[in-house]
């Protein structure tokens, strides 16, 4: 008697940074037939992101099952110490928790990982890795093993990790660069799937994020900067259609024993403007200047009177407030006994902030200890999400206005939204006529334990999230 060997399980994760669930699941679903194959064959739903819903740390939260506080990463830039001006860009060295591919490598599984932020500088794994958009350039050592770099450049000459300077008015150039980047990344992905053994495959495409930031205002009639009829009105739609065709080419590598996931780290929405956080702090008496600037000026160029300043802020897709605490910051004046009360006061005042028409904005201000299970490294004392993310935060002071229509870091038409997308199906069901099943209450932190469960590996101790089971897929009899 011969025992039948269990089929070899694989997982294919296709990450589309910033891909929006409303566009994919509702608005354009019939126009992205390959993504829709996964939706129809399995389960899908909105995937609640982390706080903050930012590329870094969201992808690493997804792949470690840990929240930003546990990772100690709260955005691209994080305080390095308690000085007034030292911020560091997060990278792979900032991540101390094990990723899914670390666990799988240890279990003897072959992995292919492409473009997952932050994976630069590269770390060893069992398999092949190409690092993310934080890579300084294609001349850097951006692959593991190191000799893979030459192979990547042969497959996709001048391989692009990102579109540099994507906040630009040169929209024709930007569009061509996004397509070029996406084409090169998928070409390399297909090459590795053809030439490498793999049990786990994951890639993240940044083009969805870049096209949202660059072109949302041309698509959305509700956008304050919508120009009316324009040549870029269909730019985002057409890119999604093209992207879907490339996704279809990857699905050809998924056999009947492959579990397929299509995911995004957060969604997108129009940007109605920016709230000048430091301007507001100046007006409220929290931030003291020795001289008020004659034009909008970034914090690092302001003449701040730290001896009279109780709090200051950093701009971005969300705002970060730092309290000037006595004994912590060099010129701190807020007594530790007053620290929490000041944060609660700031939270209440910011959440009561109105838009330019005097209507409540729906702002949320978050205290890290209320949000994270643990707070490592140096978290913002308060994180502020203006207008339910229809507004971003500007760090400038000058001009006297708290609200502005302009982004202080360059042209940008979209902000991030709280929900990304999730779709999961088994390869054997892709050609079936199953009825898609919508799931509610999905969390980005559910993805890591779900990947591990596919291989019969228990979630690591301390991982958040619950396994997204295929029970609803099994419950529906699929016809071939």
Walkthrough of the structure:
- This protein has 480 residues and is α/β, with parallel strands linked by helices.
- The chain folds into 2 domains: 320 residues, 3-Layer(aba) Sandwich (Alkaline Phosphatase, subunit A); 139 residues, no CATH class.
- It has 14 helices and 21 strands.
- Strands 1, 2, 5, 6, 7, 8, 9, 19, 20 and 21 form a 10-stranded mixed β-sheet that branches.
- A hairpin with a 4-residue loop joins strand 12 and strand 13.
- Helix 7 packs antiparallel against helix 8 and helix 8 packs antiparallel against helix 9.
- The radius of gyration is 23 Å and the shape is globular.
- The C terminus is likely disordered.
Name the CATH homologous superfamily of the largest domain: Alkaline Phosphatase, subunit A
- The level of helicity is 25-40%
Using only C-alpha atoms, the radius of gyration works out to 23 Å
Average of per-residue pLDDT values? 94
CATH class of the largest domain, please?
A: Alpha Beta
Question: Which CATH architecture of the largest domain is right?
Answer: 3-Layer(aba) Sandwich
Could you say which structural class the secondary elements and strand pairing correspond to? alpha/beta
**What is the number of helices?**
14
Number of strands: 21
User: Could you say how many structural domains there are in total?
Assistant: 2
Our measurement of the CA-to-CA distance between the termini, rounded to an integer number of angstroms, reads 32 Å
Any idea of the CATH topology of the largest domain? Alkaline Phosphatase, subunit A
Task: Estimate what percentage of residues fall within beta strands.
Answer: 15-25%
Return residue spans where pLDDT drops below 50 for at least 5 consecutive residues: 472-480
Overall geometry: globular
The largest sheet is: 10 strands, mixed
């Amino acid at each position: 008697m011969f025992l039948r060997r269990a089929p070899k399980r694989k997982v294919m994760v296709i990450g589309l940074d910033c891909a929006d669930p409303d566009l994919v699941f509702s608005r354009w679903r019939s126009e992205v037939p390959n993504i829709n194959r996964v939706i129809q064959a399995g389960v899908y739903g909105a995937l609640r992101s982390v706080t903050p819903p930012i590329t870094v740390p969201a992808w690493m939260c997804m792949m470690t099952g840990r929240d930003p506080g546990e990772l100690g990463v709260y955005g691209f830039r994080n305080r390095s110490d308690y000085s007034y001006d030292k911020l560091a860009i997060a990278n792979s060295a900032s991540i101390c928790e094990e990723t899914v591919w670390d666990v799988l490598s240890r279990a003897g599984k072959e992995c292919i990982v492409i473009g997952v932020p932050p994976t630069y500088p590269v770390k060893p794994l069992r398999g092949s890795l190409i690092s993310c958009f934080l890579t300084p350039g294609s001349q850097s050592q951006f692959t593991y093993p190191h000799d893979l770099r030459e192979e990547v450049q042969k497959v996709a000459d001048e391989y692009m990790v990102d579109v540099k300077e994507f906040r630009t008015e040169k929209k024709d150039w930007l569009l061509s660069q996004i397509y070029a980047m996406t084409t090169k990344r998928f070409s390399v992905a297909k090459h590795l799937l053809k030439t490498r053994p793999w049990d786990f495959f994951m890639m993240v495409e940044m083009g969805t994020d870049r096209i949202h930031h660059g072109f949302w205002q041309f698509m959305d009639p509700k956008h304050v900067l919508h120009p009316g009829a324009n040549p870029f009105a269909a730019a985002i739609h057409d890119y999604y259609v093209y992207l879907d065709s490339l996704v279809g080419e990857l699905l050809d590598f998924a056999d009947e024993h492959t579990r397929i996931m299509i995911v995004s780290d957060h969604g997108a929405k129009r940007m109605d403007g920016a709230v000048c956080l430091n301007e507001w702090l100046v007006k409220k008496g929290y931030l003291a200047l020795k001289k008020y600037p004659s034009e909008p000026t970034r914090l690092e160029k302001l003449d701040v009177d730290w001896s009279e300043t109780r709090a200051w802020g950093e701009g971005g897709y969300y705002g970060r407030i730092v309290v000037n605490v006595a004994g912590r910051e060099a010129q701190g004046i807020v007594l530790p006994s007053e620290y929490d009360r000041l944060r609660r006061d700031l939270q209440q005042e910011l959440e009561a902030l109105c838009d330019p028409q005097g209507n409540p904005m729906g702002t949320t201000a978050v205290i890290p200890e209320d949000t994270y299970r643990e707070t490592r490294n140096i978290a913002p004392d308060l994180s502020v999400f203006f207008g339910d993310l229809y507004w971003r935060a500007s760090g400038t002071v000058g001009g006297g206005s708290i609200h502005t229509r302009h982004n202080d870091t360059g042209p940008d038409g979209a902000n991030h939204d709280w929900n990304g997308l999730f779709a999961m199906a088994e390869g054997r069901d892709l050609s079936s006529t199953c009825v898609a099943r919508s799931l509610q209450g999905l969390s980005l932190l559910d993805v890591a334990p779900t990947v591990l469960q596919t291989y019969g590996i228990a979630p690591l101790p301390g991982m958040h999230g619950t396994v997204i089971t295929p029970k609803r897929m099994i419950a529906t009899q699929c016809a071939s």
